[in-house]
């Protein structure tokens, strides 16, 4: 069986030592749905194992040992897909991710924002591209690319399936946040893996 993790760093323009992860849309546990994420050395970096118990509306991103890093919950009673992200299994959201729904601007997929006060949202990241084609860029508030999702190719130029792709993360963003954004994009744009409504 071919290795799914990278053997070399993928070059990125204007990058100083980016983190490169291989994301595999498969849980390590039998009967679960989730992600398995490897670093550039082939070691397990993150995992998501969802049992999809009826009524469970959260996803937990864990490190290799199973410690909870972030919890993602769908915001109920929202006009657009909106997800709240918590540190660990906390009760106060760190930020939210909202699906972009403007038909005039088709580049944008979602916005990541924090709440400075009750009435004003502060956009910290914008995600553009196509999740279905595994071609997405995450831009910060200064329009710098801080993370990228791209198709992965095995040695010899053979493209792997859509369930295996690369996540390139610049040092200016926490790799766990970049992985949370991948999980949320998967919930928003992959109809076979959505939270129960």
What does this structure look like?
By secondary structure, the protein is mainly beta. The chain is 8% helix and 43% strand. It has one helix and twelve strands. The chain has a twelve-stranded antiparallel beta barrel with strand order 1-2-3-4-5-6-7-8-9-10-11-12. The chain is globular and about 50 Å long. The chain starts with 18 loop residues before the first strand and ends in an 8-residue tail after the last helix.
- Major sheet details: 12 strands, antiparallel, barrel
Low-confidence stretches: 5-14
Main-sheet strand order equals 1-2-3-4-5-6-7-8-9-10-11-12
Order of helices and strands: EEEEEEEEEEEEH
Strand content: 35-45%
Instruction: Tell me the structural class.
Output: mainly beta
Distance N terminus to C terminus? Answer: 37 Å
Topology (elements, then pairings):
Elements lengths: L18 E6 L8 E6 L5 E7 L7 E6 L4 E7 L7 E6 L5 E7 L8 E10 L2 E11 L4 E6 L4 E7 L12 E6 L5 H15 L8
Antiparallel strand pairs: 1-2, 1-12, 2-3, 3-4, 4-5, 5-6, 6-7, 7-8, 8-9, 9-10, 10-11, 11-12
In short:
The protein is mainly beta.
Question: What keywords describe this structure?
Answer:
single chain, 197 residues, mainly beta, twelve-stranded antiparallel beta barrel, 1 helix
């Amino acid at each position: 069986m071919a290795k799914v993790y990278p053997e070399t760093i993928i070059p990125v323009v204007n990058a100083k030592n980016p983190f490169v992860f291989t994301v595999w849309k498969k849980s390590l546990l039998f009967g679960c749905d989730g992600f398995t994420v490897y670093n550039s050395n082939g070691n397990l970096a993150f995992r998501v194992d969802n049992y999809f118990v009826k009524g469970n509306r959260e996803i937990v991103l864990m490190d290799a040992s199973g410690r909870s890093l972030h919890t993602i919950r769908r915001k109920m009673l929202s006009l657009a897909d909106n997800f709240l992200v918590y540190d660990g299994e906390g009760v106060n959201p760190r930020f939210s991710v909202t699906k972009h729904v403007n038909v005039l601007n088709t580049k944008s997929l979602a916005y990541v924002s924090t709440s400075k006060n009750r009435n004003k949202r502060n956009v910290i990241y914008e995600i553009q591209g196509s999740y279905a084609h595994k071609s997405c860029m995450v831009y910060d508030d200064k329009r710098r690319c801080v993370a990228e999702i791209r198709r992965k190719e095995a040695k010899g130029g053979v493209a792997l399936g859509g369930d295996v792709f690369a996540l390139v993360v610049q040092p200016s963003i926490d790799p766990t946040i970049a992985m949370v954004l991948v999980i949320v994009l998967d919930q928003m744009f992959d109809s076979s893996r959505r939270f129960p409504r």
